Amino acid sequence: MVVTRFAPSPNGSLHLGHAYSAITAHDLAKERGGTFQLRIEDIDGVRSLPEKADEFREDLEWLGLEWVEMPAQSTRLETYEAFARNLLSRGYLYPCTCTRKDIMAMKPRMGPEGAIYPGTCKGRNLDPEKPAALRLDVDRAMAELPELFWEDEVNGTQIADPRPFGDVVLVRKDAPASYHLASTLDDASDGVTLVTRGQDLYAMTHIHRVLQELLGLPVPMWHHHPILLGEDGEKLAKRRNSPSLADRRRAGEDGRVLADRLRRGEFGAGITLASA
Ligand code: GLU
């Protein structure tokens, strides 16, 4: 049975782009007689606003969606810690005390998601007083794993290669997991079979596929849907000043009508991976 999910971070209000993402995941599950899940990713981001989670639920209801809610990330910290300890004890993680400023001062190469960490802390004796993050030793992981693939309903079969991102952070200084670790573990424990999200997160899957292999997790399929763009070419989800779903709801707009307009593609233009 197909299980999809919408996994918003409660750092700000939802916009049309989020509505499109939630509707896509919802409809993909419903068309196939499956389940659509909501998961609040409240450790993904600098600051979580607990009241936003209620706002999100009201928004989804207003759009006419039905979902099963899974536990929020903040209730799963022990699981993240256990899996991180496992990776650390097997030598796939190393501590890193560098700050963002330190890294930028090293004039790092830029990858698809910004600065590539030059591996400065790898194998170094670190000041135990300084807060440390844990980074994935990506070369070590790739040297030991067989060639990995992932199946994307939109983009076809992909070879997983996270090396262009460098040694990404899996355990943050201020949280027991980064987005990569938490989201990958949650999708596995929630039984998600079709990870549905925007094309903007497509490249992240290279990292997640490798984590699944290192952690012995089940491997789902992915559906990376096109992103809604405004007429100015900017992502609707991030666009400043565009009314949030909550604003539209409170102004009395009919959410179900809005959802159907989104389904009909009346808003913005979808971008494909080639032009992303
Ligand atoms: N929490 C992430 C976000 O709000 C989404 C993660 C995902 O769908 O994998 O951007």
From TrEMBL:
Residues 1-247 form the Glutamyl/glutaminyl-tRNA synthetase class Ib catalytic domain. Keywords: Aminoacyl-tRNA synthetase, ATP-binding, Ligase, Metal-binding, Nucleotide-binding, Protein biosynthesis, Zinc. It comes from the Bacteria. One of its GO terms (molecular function) is ligase activity. Its EC number is 6.1.1.-. The keyword Nucleotide-binding applies. PROSITE patterns: AA_TRNA_LIGASE_I. PANTHER family: GLUTAMATE--TRNA LIGASE, GLUTAMYL-Q TRNA(ASP) SYNTHETASE. Belongs to the class-I aminoacyl-tRNA synthetase family. This is tRNA glutamyl-Q(34) synthetase GluQRS. It comes from Qipengyuania polymorpha. The gene is gluQRS.
